[in-house]
Specification:
- It is a single chain.
- The chain is an alpha+beta fold and 448 residues long.
- It has a domain at 1-82 and 324-383: Orthogonal Bundle (Cytochrome p450).
- The protein has helices at 17-22, 24-35, 54-63, 73-82, 91-101, 107-110, 114-134, 140-157, 165-184, 196-221, 229-235, 247-278, 280-293, 300-303, 307-319, 351-354, 395-412; strands spanning 38-43, 46-51, 68-69, 138-139, 325-330, 334-336, 339-341, 346-350, 413-417, 424-426, 430-432, 437-442.
- A hairpin with a 2-residue loop joins strand 6 and strand 7.
- Helix 4 runs antiparallel to helix 9, helix 7 packs antiparallel against helix 8 (140-157) and helix 15 (307-319) packs across helix 17.
- Bound molecules: protoporphyrin IX containing FE (HEM).
């Protein structure tokens, strides 16, 4: 017989909502440390469980995934911008979209993006050489946000996006800002109220939609073959029904890919660079390995899954997982690790909590890329891209991009992190709060 899981008592009316709002990452971590791997708490009248054992996570995300939907308040809010895209949709509709989109993210097709990753990573290094010679620090977070936006933009739309890039970047900034404000507000502001925040959101959404729809309509009329993600999504057919996507569906998938595919990658890269800048021996080891193995320069195709870069990136993803918290809602009563999970409640799974659990990881808070020389203790002890049917469709794209960028920067520069450990800002994604300044020096002379 299943039992009721232990957990904090919380406020008599609001439950743990005030703690969750004040410092969600801390609340979840402390709850797991105090009450164990299944913690029950209430917030604003809803019952929730934080599940942190690999066995429990496997059950929710994989073994009994059919019982868990994404019908949660966070996802409902995200729909205001992402619509019914892959990240936010559910059930049969999601499955159909996933089947259609999957081939566009196949590893062989992703190799086609290697050259554009190389091109933009090289352009970054050229600019950074100037900064290094001038002795000016760079802000890793700002730089990585710009780089990953350019890369995912070009991967989606080909070169077409170049002229629209500043407008898209601005619109995404505005949307994420407003979205964060909406997530953390105690009393929701009705979205139809004509206040400044809602007007900013609508204007940004309209600008983004305008760019996306223009590209989609332009492509519908075009005859020449393209190999960017948009064309792949447009050409993709459901293997069972032979159906493609409508313009409205394409719009939702394009915006989803833009949003899901740039900020996450930028945050992980920023922390990877920060950590290497604060751990000289690890940085030296990676830089030396890159110079020895690739004397004539780093190419994205060669360093995808190259162990020295992969270990550093994995360790950054372990310590600072951008997808730090996800939620599900069971459609039927369930049981996780012997504890009752009632239907209609919420289940929270936090990579931030699990990736730092002392029973799974030795020295859990330390940056030790070498630990990834061995496999993680469990498939669900390390899950930066989630797992089961809803796992990240862009994982290979992100890994390919991050391995290449980290290896290339380590080959060309040595750097120091100037500031303290960047505090985390756990919102929709886990990102660093404030700038992340790096002081750069040239490692090798620039090629003529
Ligand atoms: C370091 C980079 C990234 C991280 C840490 C990350 C993490 C995640 C996580 C944790 C999920 C599952 C969320 C949940 O279950 O609620 C997810 C889903 C998703 N990600 Fe990523 N992601 C990254 C990069 C990317 C990239 C580069 C793309 C696209 C180019 C992308 C597109 C998506 C999409 C479309 C989904 C929804 C998949 C589905 O439900 O079928 N992500 N991502």
């Amino acid at each position: 017989m299943s039992t009721i899981a232990p957990g904090p008592r919380g406020h008599f009316l609001l439950g743990s909502l005030p703690d969750l709002r004040r410092d969600p990452a801390r609340f979840l971590k402390e709850s797991q440390a105090t009450f164990g791997d299944v913690v029950r708490f209430s917030f604003g009248g809803s019952v929730a469980h934080l599940v942190s054992s690999p066995s429990g996570i496997r059950h929710v995300l994989q073994a009994n995934a059919k019982n868990y939907t994404k019908n949660t308040p966070g996802i409902q809010k995200l729909k205001a911008i992402l619509g019914e895209g892959l990240l936010t949709s559910d059930g049969e509709f999601w499955l159909r979209q996933r089947r259609i989109a999957q081939p566009a993210f196949h590893r062989d097709r992703l190799q086609g993006f290697a050259d554009l990753i190389d091109k933009h990573a090289e352009a970054l290094c050229v600019r950074w050489r100037v900064e290094a010679l001038a002795g000016r620090p760079v802000d890793a977070h700002r730089e990585m946000m710009a780089l990953t936006l350019t890369i995912v933009g070009e991967a989606l739309f080909g070169a077409d996006v170049a002229a629209d890039a500043p407008a898209v970047a601005h619109a995404l900034d505005e949307i994420l800002l407003v979205q964060d404000a909406r997530f953390t507000r105690a009393i929701p502001l009705p979205v139809w109220l004509p206040v400044r925040e809602n007007r900013r959101f609508s204007a940004a959404k309209a600008a983004l939609d305008d760019v996306c729809m223009r590209m989609i309509r332009g492509r519908r009329g075009a005859t020449e073959g393209r190999s960017d993600l948009l064309s792949m999504l447009m050409d993709a057919r459901d293997p069972e029904t032979g159906q493609g996507m409508s313009d409205a569906q394409l719009r939702d998938e394009v915006v989803t890919t833009f949003v899901a595919g740039h900020e996450t990658t930028a945050n992980a890269l920023t922390y990877a660079l920060y950590l290497l800048g604060a751990h000289a021996p690890a940085q030296e080891e990676l830089g030396e390995a890159a110079r020895l193995e690739f004397p004539s320069g780093i190419r994205c195709r060669e360093v995808f899954r190259w162990a020295p870069a992969e270990r550093v990136v994995n360790e950054a993803l372990r310590l600072y997982p951008p997808g730090w918290l996800f939620a599900r809602s069971p459609t039927e009563d369930d049981e996780v690790d012997g504890f009752a999970i009632p239907k209609g409640s919420f289940v929270f799974i936090s990579a931030w909590v699990v990736h730092r659990k002392a029973d799974l990881w030795t020295n859990p808070d330390a940056f030790e890329p070498g630990r990834f020389a061995a496999s993680p203790p469990d498939r669900f002890a390390f899950f930066p891209y989630s797992g089961g049917p809803r796992q990240c469709i862009g994982a290979a794209f992100a890994d390919m991009e991050m391995h290449a960028i980290v290896a290339r920067i380590a080959q060309s520069f040595s750097w120091r992190s100037i500031g303290p450990v960047p505090p985390i800002d756990p919102k929709v994604t886990l990102r660093p709060k404030g700038g992340v300044p790096l002081s750069l020096s040239l490692r090798v002379a620039p090629s003529p």
